[in-house]
Design goal:
With 132 residues, this protein is mainly β. The chain is 8% helix and 51% strand. The protein has helices at residues 10-15, 127-130; strands at 20-23, 28-35, 39-41, 44-51, 54-57, 62-68, 71-74, 77-79, 82-90, 95-97, 100-107, 112-114, 117-119. Mean pLDDT is 82; it is low at 1-8.
């Protein structure tokens, strides 16, 4: 499925997507993570996350920093800015403290957002661009 095709419930579909766990539960990591595949954050991460695929922040996951990915599902907490995203889905328990720049935003009932939203055109998140 291409990222432009919107499933009936994108959040549920993405939550079930096959992803690599980059930061597991009960793990604290800081730095810069760059991925060329779908990734899931279940622990606490401080820094920058960039991916050319889906990024999932699990219910117990927390990112403090900047995130860039074409598709982003937040079920946990994010303290920082989301930039250059095609589609962002905030799950029912999501907490976002920061600004969102995306082409499409879905906010589930119960999600919390403290920040600004800017609807924008797509940016280049191809593998070559993501490595820059």
């Amino acid at each position: 499925m291409e990222s432009r095709e919107i499933p009936q419930d994108a959040g549920a579909a993405w939550a079930e997507s096959r992803t690599r766990v980059a930061v597991g539960r009960n793990v604290n990591v800081s730095g810069k993570l760059i991925f060329h595949e779908a990734v899931r954050i279940e622990g606490r991460f401080r820094g920058e996350v960039r991916s050319v695929e889906l990024v999932v922040v699990g219910e117990e996951g927390m990112i403090e920093g900047k995130v860039s990915a074409p598709r982003l599902l937040i079920m946990g907490e994010l303290r920082g800015d989301l930039v250059g995203c095609d589609r962002v889905v905030l799950g029912p328990h999501a907490k976002v403290f920061g600004n969102i720049e995306a082409r499409s935003l879905t906010v589930s009932e119960g999600a919390y957002l403290d920040g600004n939203v800017r609807m924008s055109q797509l940016v280049d998140l191809t593998p070559d661009a993501i490595d820059r």
